[in-house]
Amino acid sequence: MEKERSAPVQGEPIAAVATPVGVGALAIVRMSGEGVFAIADRIFVGARDSGTPLSAAAGYTARFGRLYDGGTMLDEAVALVFRSPHSFTAEDMVEITCHGGPVVTKHVLQVLLDNGCRLAEPGEFTRRAFLNGRIDLLQAEAIGEMIHARSEAAYRTAVGQLKGGLSEKLDALRERLLGSCALLELELDFSEEDLEFQSRGELSEQVDGLRSEVERLVDSYQHGRLLCEGVATAIIGRPNAGKSTLLNALLGEERAIVSHMPGTTRDYIEECFVHDKTMFRLTDTAGLREAVEEIEHEGIRRSYEKIAQADLILFLLDIGEENYEEEITTIQKIVDEYPSTKLLVVANKADSTEDAGERMENIGEETGLSVLGISALHEEGLEELKREMNVMTEGLDKLHDASVLVTSMRHYEALRNAQDVLRNAGELIGEQAETELVAFELRSALDYVGEITGKVVNEEVLNLIFDRFCIGK
Ligand code: GDP
């Protein structure tokens, strides 16, 4: 379904508390849609406007006054008037700033509901902003990302997306695709006359150009994801190798964010630190061993899952131990099974034995990897370790990179699909296939790109996106 941008539609009035639940100095209760000024007039009496109703106020006016439920005063408040289309939703809106307490806000919301508003669904305000063409889908998602951002980088990428960098790029791509499609459609209209409005050579060049541009965006995803989420770094090794000690030492000075991930168990914790503008998301996993007691199974499985998800693995071993054959086997196994994951062998407790150097050399020879000696406990070798972590992930993630990036899985998948159908289109042109077939592929590409910004609306996608929002956003 192709969506037309038209004058804002005023939906039925909705209301919600926009601020978090709990005790605070102030809270905001907002309403949007047809008739919200009339509703405001029934419950709000301005203090200094000698009877002028709120509905007579110009857009962007703030009024101080009192809120009433019939004859009962509820609170003193400030009411802010937004007139369509100059509001967040592009509808008429009133934002009421009242005192922040769960009971006060409950009463204020209730009086709006009693006077004709319906309780807003999660993300409904943003959804209306999108449906009214105030923002595109990417920007709507950016608002969601911004609210949920746990790191400076994630926040900054969301702001970039809200500003419209990616939207512009995709719109331009879509325009070019439309151009190619239009010429092909014309040919189809005149199919009996066997006309070619554009040479196949030219078309092929255009399609190639489009494909490589889509490819660049697809390729930016890994970078974009790392930028938002950080380099997923797993610290693994036998119990007592010093994983927790290393984790704490690394997080020590440069701890950026303490994140409480849902589903965190005693098996692993996850925290981030930033070194030289790269964010590392560290996980401390349960010990890895082949033979383990039953009780440890869940933890072991999780460790392997973490390895599969990691961008960088710090394989920690206790160099004070004489026997490290088992570790060498595990290292080789990881290298075989996860060839694209970066692996750094770290020999911990280098302070505890004089044989550290010799043992490290052995391990290096047997695994073919370089081995870095540290003492997590005495914080020795940590600078070298961090430097090496940066070198190994060089280019994967840089906070200062301002280019347009794809950060969302949804966008990535749509772009991958677009890339596929453009590749098909290119091949079909090469084979001098029928115009209809080429046109079909190009139209699909158009749909895939349109899905991202919301030019092509898919109800299911909209539900997925807006359900993630909270009520009141
Ligand atoms: P984990 O089971 O791998 O998380 O290991 P821990 O971090 O709990 O460390 C196990 C033990 O090794 C603790 O008693 C630590 O104090 C000790 N340890 C950790 N790092 C070092 C180190 O660099 N040198 C020495 N001598 N002991 C260490």
At a glance:
With 473 residues, this protein is an alpha/beta fold.
Tell me about this structure:
- Helix content is 46%, strand content 18%.
- With 473 residues, the chain is an alpha/beta fold.
- It folds into 3 domains: 123 residues, Probable tRNA modification gtpase trme, domain 1 (Gyrase A, domain 2); 115 residues, Four Helix Bundle (Hemerythrin (Met), subunit A) (Up-down Bundle), CATH 1.20.120; 162 residues, Rossmann fold (3-Layer(aba) Sandwich).
- A 7-stranded mixed β-sheet has the order 3-4-5-6-2-1-7, with helices on one face. Strands 9-10-11-8-12-13-14 form a 7-stranded mixed β-sheet.
- Helix 11 links the parallel strand 13 and strand 14.
- The protein binds guanosine-5'-diphosphate (GDP).
- The site of guanosine-5'-diphosphate has 15 residues, from helix 8.
- Guanosine-5'-diphosphate binds next to helix 8.
